[in-house]
Amino acid sequence: MADNNQIGGDYVVIKALENGVTIIGLTRGGATKFHHSEKLDKGEIMIAQFTEHTSAIKIRGRADLMTKHGRIRTDE
């Protein structure tokens, strides 16, 4: 059985509003680095999670974000 304390970070739902939206995961630690990237086309959805390795998510392009704090839309 997995230890939920290691995995239990918040989830973010990202819906692309245009083709080519880029999502980049950034690492934790002394030096923040890119560790993963994805491209979404219009209408595609990605569910991302903050974990022991991911401290931030950068989004380029028009997208809707849904978090436990509410809904956010990137600027046009």
UniProtKB/TrEMBL annotation:
<dbReference type="InterPro" id="IPR000824">
    <property type="entry name" value="MtrB"/>
</dbReference>
<dbReference type="GO" id="GO:0003723">
    <property type="term" value="F:RNA binding"/>
</dbReference>
<keyword id="KW-0694">RNA-binding</keyword>
<keyword id="KW-0805">Transcription regulation</keyword>
<dbReference type="GO" id="GO:0006353">
    <property type="term" value="P:DNA-templated transcription termination"/>
</dbReference>
<dbReference type="GO" id="GO:0006355">
    <property type="term" value="P:regulation of DNA-templated transcription"/>
</dbReference>
<protein>
    <recommendedName>
        <fullName>Transcription attenuation protein MtrB</fullName>
    </recommendedName>
</protein>
<keyword id="KW-0804">Transcription</keyword>
<dbReference type="InterPro" id="IPR023558">
    <property type="entry name" value="Trp_RNA-bd_attenuator_dom"/>
</dbReference>
<dbReference type="Pfam" id="PF02081">
    <property type="entry name" value="TrpBP"/>
</dbReference>
<comment type="similarity">
    <text>Belongs to the MtrB family.</text>
</comment>
<comment type="subunit">
    <text>Oligomer of 11 identical subunits arranged in doughnut-like structure.</text>
</comment>
<feature type="domain" description="Tryptophan RNA-binding attenuator protein">
    <location>
        <begin position="9"/>
        <end position="75"/>
    </location>
</feature>
<dbReference type="InterPro" id="IPR016031">
    <property type="entry name" value="Trp_RNA-bd_attenuator-like_dom"/>
</dbReference>
